[in-house]
Amino acid sequence: MSNQAETLEFQAEARQLLQLVVHSIYSNKDVFLRELISNASDALDKLRLATMVDKDLVADTDDLHVAIEVDRDARTLTVRDNGIGMTRDEVVGLIGTIAKSGTAELLRQLRESADARASQDLIGQFGVGFYAAFMVADRVTLLTRKAGETGGTRWESAGEGTYSVEGVDEAPQGTSVTLHLKPADTEDNLHDYTAEWTIREIVKRYSDFIAWPIRMTVERPGADGAEATSEVQTLNSMKALWARPRDEVDAAEYNEFYKHVSHDWADPLEVVHMRGEGTFEYEALLFLPSHAPLDMFAPQGRRGVQLYVKRVFIMDDCEALVPTYLRFVKGVVDAHDLSLNISREILQQDRQIQIVRRRLVKKVLTTVKDLKANHPERYRTFWTEFGTVVKEGLIDDTDNRDTLLEILSVASTNDPAELTDLAGYVSRMKDGQSDIWYATGDSRATIENSPHLEAFRAKGHEVLLLTDPVDEVWVERVGEYDGRRLRSIAKGEVDLDTDEEKQQAETEREQQRQEFAALVEWLGATLADSVREVRLSSRLTTSPACVVGDAHDLTPTLEKMYRAMGHEVPSTKRILEINPGHPLVAGLRKAHEQGDSSETLTETAELLYGLAVLAEGGELADPARFTRTLADRLARTL
Predict the structure, then answer these.
(1) Locate the Histidine kinase/HSP90-like ATPase domain: which residues (predicted)?
(2) 130 assigned binding-site residue
């Protein structure tokens, strides 16, 4: 080997990529250490594999590790491994050139878009992550010796277009990368990377679960003027619980790990440990928390799943791995091989990610289903904390809608204290009942006092009581369960009578239609600005009137939700149903037949409509006029 130093130029594409890495690609300068440690870990893996394949390979494998060395006076940071090492040609090929197909196209995309996706061919190549060192260093020196060879190679560059490379007679097995650090600059987020706490924090965040020990010599001041002492400490835990069989991990370890990844003070409600095998391998360790996070409904609330690739931390809050309705799930997904962009910070939306996402969702929902069947108390805790969010999945996740409907629990008129599922509701349906009835409102008390519920209560029909804003949307989107329609008690016409009851009451109903025809027509004309139609009601037993919508109308609550989100929604006129058996309605008919004062009758009609709106928890268009009219009418009675 020639020991003469040569000065070479970076290949044009490599030079461009180097500049992009230093100035554009990485959003956080701290990741340089992640990249160097990841390279070192790969080198150790490769040496272990090489010694297994080639029994004659002369290599020291007694204590494989990564070492971090700091010289505060010289302001250098060295990352050293005793892994596979490189030859001179490999150093030049991996760092000085990028002889990969598609590199030119990659660079074009990166230049055009900061969010561009890059070829996975470049990920894991030594040169790409290595370039990140120039974000924090003025000069980088690399010393390496290939396992089984006698001579080594020294490489050095300031990252400005050229590099020097020379052979050396003495070099330890493996690779060391020495960074001559730039001065710390807090405004540019350039930290002091010679500080022990900074290094510890970065290693803990990005490389805590690397399978090899990451060591650093630290100095401790002596007590009472004694000499300072130094000791070698291992900075990473190497405890990747997800890589161990579940029967080898106890509950205390799971609880400790959950608190580490979630920053929660309480133990998790349930552990979901899974492994994907085959063409695409991964491990996942997920947790269902025991209480909802404070930011669960915040627009910028954090997701809970962290992404690792080969135990190297890639990102927090990985949105690609779980849908928004499972945003409370915490944990880790560790993929063995995954397509990332060049900075490892943005996932490609490719088939691999979609496969992992589908499997994670199915596993989480299956776990909740198991809780519901076998651990009702824990399920009740889960649903109380997260049920509102889980119901969001009924709107968009059609693939898992059947499972979501199975784990759904809602309040109903069947039991004032216990929730019910849809299967339980169906099992209690009355003979001849074909629809699942529900009511929506701000609270259970509001719904239970609604006039819409009167006929259902009188006939003994169970009604689901839905009080979450999302309920207004999912019931419309789902439409049916087990072949039975989901129907609102406040929409369309309601007829709960049996065929026999209809026959018995037909004569009476026809008589009522004739008797009230004139009043119904007059009310329709008088209240034309507020209602679409006036008709006799079959759902009222004690209230004088109620307002209902057609089968496909938006509910008032849904209209308010859309307007709050900035959507233009035209106001929908609703239908006023009057109860012919109520004294107020009967008196209004009599007064109308006798030709009483038109002004008085009009006021009574407006009050009747206003009472119907208030009874369902609605808002009056002109509350001041309503209260003034009501006060005047009350005063006349005294």
Answers:
(1) 28-185
(2) yes
